[in-house]
Amino acid sequence: MPAQKPLRLDARRNRDALVSAAREVFAERGLDAPLKEIAARAGVAIGTLYNRFPTRDDLIAAAVADRVEAGGRIAEEALALDDPWESFVYLVEKVCALQASDRLMNELALRAAPSPEIAAQRDRGHAAMREIITRAQDAGVLRADWVLEDIAFITWSHTRVVEQTAGIAPEAWRRNLALILDGLRAEAAHPLPVPPISEEQLNRSLLANPD
């Protein structure tokens, strides 16, 4: 792939203004906020927005890139912990805390990756998560029938809890998560009624839920 030409100073200024405005507007109104509002807040024409970011996903990818990178660091930090259960809990709690404090990440959990780069970062994070899960299961502390795709049930339910309680009891999600984590301990396990969803089914569900 040929190297991208560096942007002119005015083009760079416009791009930075659009990304900054997108983060603000998306945080206020969600990832489906009107793009005209983002352009207006950035002080540029809507044509300039589409020139820099031809699709909504292109703009979302630029707005969340730093957040997704922070999420990847959480998995690395969790892997560095010696205790398998504490490593697993650290991973889940930190990811949920990131979602609870950031509407962009909260909504991104319900969507397909907006760019190949974000998808690749997710894949690297998932590889680390699988290692954390396997280590906890090998240690006999995490129920043996739990799979990576099951984490979607935590993040999906977590997004709704955050939406319903953020303005009333912003820390309530921690109680919900503690109840979930207790149910994932190996000693609490009972046979599950159906098999886990596959990675392919998970990806299809994300594509079917743009918001």
Task: Describe, in plain words, how this protein is organized in 3D.
The protein has 211 residues and is an all-alpha fold. It is built from 10 helices and no strands. It is elongated and about 60 Å long.
Helical stretch tally: 10
Percentage of residues assigned to helices: 55-70%
Beta-strand segment tally: 0
In percent terms, what proportion of residues is strand? under 5%
Short description:
The protein is mainly alpha-helical.
Write the layout of secondary structure elements.
Blueprint: H1 9-29, H2 35-42, H3 46-52, H4 56-79, H5 84-101, H6 103-108, H7 116-138, H8 151-165, H9 172-184, H10 199-207
Helix pairs in contact: 1-2, 1-4, 4-5, 4-7, 5-7, 5-8, 5-9, 8-9
Summary tags:
mainly alpha, 211 residues
